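Reminder: ligand-aware prediction takes two inputs, not one.
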Amino acid sequence: DSMFSTLSEVPPDEPFAVNGAYKRDSNPQKVNLGIGVYRTSDGNPWPLRVVEEAEKELFEASDVNRHEYLAIQGDADFLSLAADLVFGFGDYEGSSRQVAENMRQRVVSIQTVSGTGANRLGAELLARNIRPGCVWIPNPTWANHYTIWDLAAVPKKEYPYYDSTSKAFDFNGTFRTLSTYAKANDVVILHACAHNPTGADPSQEQWKMLAQLCKEKGIIPFFDLAYQGFASGDAKKDAWAIRHIFHDLNQVEFCVAQSFSKNFGLYGQRVGALHMALSANAPTNVSSNLLANLCHLVRGEYSMAPRGGAEIVKTVLGSKDLRKKWLEDLTTMSERILQMRHALFDELVKLGTPGDWNHITNQIGMFTYIGLTESQVSAITERHHIYMLSSGRISISGLNETNVQYVAKAIDDVVR
Ligand code: PLP
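Here is what comes back for the chain with pyridoxal-5'-phosphate:
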């Protein structure tokens, strides 16, 4: 016998399980629309050109410190560039250096093991110190939110995020649920842009009302920012909701879990940051003690985040020239995704596939909730070797000129 024989069974993580099934399939026509990673029009991963350039620069610099420990907080220059990208402090520097500096002082940042680590660290800090009554999770959401908040032992409740009739964000349901049931000190998970899995986002007007609601009720917003710049090609636009609440409702305190997996294509390097935005009225000693608490948690868990990927991001964001190239690479990715949305839509319209497919081009980011039922998803995988999540979430970047017609025909086949 083993002392582990009583362990409860844990289901496999769906995106990684679907990815494994795809890899094992020997059919040459197979298509992977499961996992959320960028693919080129040849179906290959894409190390960003700007990342390769930065890697070369770092390799040639051959700095003797390059494998040293980072500080527990992480790399200070990386963190300041990362925070700037989220909050746009640089935009205020023109009018007043002091104004920009005051804003920087309101944000406490720590390097994390990518976006997942940032979500996890933020959840742990809030659970231990703020003791939220519950966390409001959008239904549906990135499935890992459930695991993360489970591990933090915070009770979970759901708000209805998606309206399957209009195939759009369910603003009324969200607003009604939070305004009726959420209490002060509850946390609400908000996808800052390109909601995973639906690709449906609030409008700016809706964001304003949600932000105001959080302010009035004392709800703690927790932004998950995994697709900044990747969604629209414009890093500023994709951070609009966060910047609005930070600048216009400057007493609301909130968290941002920032990932560089998608927008730098650094998935396996685990680059990210957690930013805690403080009220403009916060006493001055709060930020150093908050940072000390975050560092304490990180030290006990894994001492510090890895440095390799953060060096790359720091090199790119810190150089005017490389930053420009990064924006070009972002455009390359977001435009290809947009083209594929239109291509899939056009093919389905051409086939006269029953149903309304406008949501494919209305939704944004890496994913679309295509609108297949669970049994239609099983059928498309069995009959056509096309892999996607059982919810019907598809990763658009798995589409390309070679397979989009095949995928459209398969969708047509299973919905008829
Ligand atoms: N949050 C959301 C909504 C995501 O979709 C992802 C990745 O798929 C992440 C966070 C975190 O990813 P990572 O840990 O690779 O940064």
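Residues 36, 114-116, 142, 191, 196, 224, 226, 259, 261, 267, 272 surround pyridoxal-5'-phosphate (CB under 6 Å). Residues 27 and 134 are 46 Å apart (CA to CA). We will return to this case in the review session.
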